[in-house]
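Ligand: manganese (II) ion. Inputs:
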Amino acid sequence: MEIHVEPTTKSKMFCGCSAEHFVVEPNTHTCPVCLGLPGALPVPNKAAIESCLKLGLALNCQINLHSKFDRKNYFYPDLPKAYQISQYDLPFCYEGQFTASKDLKVRITRVHMEEDTGKLQHVNNSSLIDFNRSGVPLLEIVTEPDLHSAEDMTTFLKELVKTIKWLGISDCDMEKGALRLEANISVKSPNDKNELPNYKVEIKNVNSFRYIEKAVKYEIERHIELLKKGQTPKQETRGFDENKDVTFSQRSKETAQDYRYFPEPDIPPINLENKYIEKLKAEIPELPLAVVSRLVNKYSIREDFLQILINDLDSLQSFEKLLSELPKEIKPNEAAKQIVNQKLDLIQTDHKKIVKAILSAQKSYSISETELEKIISQAITDNPKPVEDYKSGKQQAIGALIGAVARQTKGQADPQMVRKMLLEQLG
Ligand code: ZN
Ligand code: MN
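Predicted complex:
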């Protein structure tokens, strides 16, 4: 995988222009640097580099204390300098490993820093260019070929995005183009002893998890068909047609040589101090997967509840505070379950109210589900009129049945639960 992420920074990568480029009047956030005018000189954005280093550290990468920027040359109208400032042989971060799930570890080749291009818009027979995005910081994450199915890929991407958001590096909003996904795919027979096939096909510029999964599945099938016929899939870049659910050829793949990389002469090499890297390391919080396994072990809370409850550091903090305040009669897992079931907002809702809601729900569970089922079916038999009304389309008639159950249970049953079970029994 190659993943491009726009870190949330105020300014662009090499100039002081605002990095905001979504729903902004075109070509209003530009200057000689990001328009690539002759003589303009780039100055690297410290906050952007810091987010690159932090991400690399979170992905257990090595850090190049001596690093530099390079020019990647290619001609395209959205690239005003005719080169992109990127990193070639000395990326900030390299050789990492990311645990995406219990069974999925993915080696990280590198995490480097570069700049975004302008945006092209094709209207009738002309093309319009908006340079507001030109020079916006981009992090590029490259993985080793450790993903063996489209499902693995999705697991990896979801955990990676969760981690990037968790670190506060980017919102990864795909609608705004803050996250772009590329997959390199090759297929080999299980009997093939070579580590990798001698070709790969790249799928570029997909901006949704669903589409990249579809595209990768499609490609795997396409390669298998070709390989069965004794052919090797052509090494090329392909796009994904969202309407037809197929991939299509875009261009044959460039090699590093075609880009004529060379060191960026306008930016001095960058030397980082160990002390600074240690400071950044200390700022990295416990990552989502580690948090979940800690809470599972410590409190025996079901993992799927935690996945729903804990989305960011704020929700984690709020949940841990709630756990520390829970009265003895509420088990942590019961608390998690009730917060999920009742869709309580850990951050917005007062914790006292949450405890009260959990206690009252617990009370209702003193009537067993089988018992409640019996009471409900009795209520249906005893009240033919509201049942008939409900079945003929009078939704509100259900109220009379809920009332009948409430009287039988002396208000001990959770009305939401009763409603749900009533609807089930009524079909
Ligand atoms: Zn600028
Ligand atoms: Mn790139």
